[in-house]
Please model this.
Amino acid sequence: MYLKVIEQEPEFSSSYYMLALLYNETGNTKKALEFSHKACEKETVSSSVFYNYALLLQKEKHFKESILAIDKGLVLFPNSEKLLYVKLLGQLNLKLTKEASATCLKLIEIAPNNLNYKQILKNIDSNYR
Model:
C-alpha cells in the first residue's frame, strides 16, 4: 500500500517514513535505511523522520552520517530536544568532545531541569578535558 502511495505521490514523505518503520520492524535494516533516507529528502513535517533515520545510522555505526542527517533536521526543527540528543550520542561516539559539549549546553538550555544532560556535560568535562 505504501509503495502505491509513493508511486502516486512521490513527494509525500510520510509513506517513505512508514515504509522505513515497517522494514525496520521486519529486520530489513538495508531497506529501512533506504526509505528513511528518502523520507528525509522529501518535504518532511516531523522531526521523527530525521530522528529515526539517525538512530538507524548509529545502530549501524555510521555516526558521521547520523550527525549530518540530524543537522538537516535541525534546520527545520532547531530546538528539537530528541534530535539534539541523538546528535550528542553521535558526537560522543566519535569523541568530538568540543562539539558534544556545545550540543549538551544547548540541551541544558532547552531542558534546564533535565539532570541527565548536566551529568553528561560533567562527564564530558571530567573525562575528555
